Amino acid sequence: YDTGANNTVVMLNMERATACESKDIYEYMSKLIEKNERRIILDMKSIYFMDSVFFGTLIKLLKKVTKIGGYIKLIVDYNSKPELLSISSFEKIFEVYPNLFEAVNTTKAS
User: Fold this and answer.
1) Angle at 75 between CA 71 and CA 80, to 5 degrees
2) 71: closest CA among 31, 30, 29, 38?
3) Going residue by residue through the chain (110 aa), what tens digit of pLDDT does each one get?
């Protein structure tokens, strides 16, 4: 938890983000949102593969937190995983940053 900016930082320490993990992530993140955590940063730097089910789960969570005036920002390693960004169209849906410092200190224009 980043107290300065009231962000909750969630590190996803996995290499593959698939349907198997999506239920657990959805339940965990939903509990955060229910506790009124509305500024969430997901650190996804370790992920090199994501399936459509997991991506859909992230979109559902984004819709859920947006309804209460919040956001989900993603941290993705642009240099080592550019294909992850191009396949999933993250940047069209989420605010995507290369590191935690930029995610905390920057807001992209809509």
Assistant:
1) 155
2) 38
3) 555 568 999 999 998 899 999 999 999 999 999 999 999 999 999 888 888 899 999 999 999 999 999 999 999 876 666 566 555 567 788 898 989 989 988 876 54
Who contacts 7 (Cβ-Cβ below 8 Å, separation ≥6)?
Answer: 1, 39, 40, 41, 103, 104
Token pair 């940053």 is found at: 97
Retrieve residue 71's tokens.
């956001």
The SS3 assignment for 27 reads helix
Mapping DSSP onto H, E and C, the string for 49-96 reads EECHHHHHHHHHHHHHHHCCCCEEEEECCCCCCHHHHHHHCHHHHCEE
